[in-house]
Amino acid sequence: MVARVEVQGFLYQSTAVKDIAERFGEEFMFRNEKGSLAIAKPVLQAFYEHLGDAVYWDHGTQAWRLGPKIGHSSG
After folding, report:
1. Residue 45 counted as domain residue
2. For residue range 4-44, what is the model confidence (pLDDT) as tens digits?
3. What whole-number distance in Å separates Cα of residue 62 and Cα of residue 75?
4. 20: Cβ–Cβ under 8 A, 6 or more apart, which residues?
5. Is there a domain that residue 73 lies in?
């Protein structure tokens, strides 16, 4: 996740979920209230700990993006 964001400047949640499930298995996932696979909280915590304020969640595009979140909604 970190490498993709650093290289591309963004990472769609759907891409991250698919990559994690394929590479590491569903034990790093959970089913959210809508029944979709979502990323386990410890994985997200490690992601945010590594990138800190350099990344933000863009709710509108369902993606993490590099840079300040000025003018973007977060969720």
Report:
1. yes
2. 999 999 999 999 999 999 999 889 999 989 898 899 999 99
3. 9
4. 1, 28, 29, 39, 43
5. no
pLDDT value, residue 26? 84
d(CA 7, CA 27): 26
Nearest to 61 by CA among 47, 73, 70: 73
Query: What is the residue-wise DSSP string for the chain?
Result: -HHHHHHHSEEEHHHHHHHHHHHH-GGGEEE-TTS-EEE-HHHHHHHHHHHGGGEEEETTTTEEEES--TT----
Has residue 72 got a pLDDT over 50?
A: no
* Sequence letter at residue 53: D
Q: How far apart are CA 43 and CA 34, in angstroms?
A: 20
- Domain count of the fold of the chain: 1
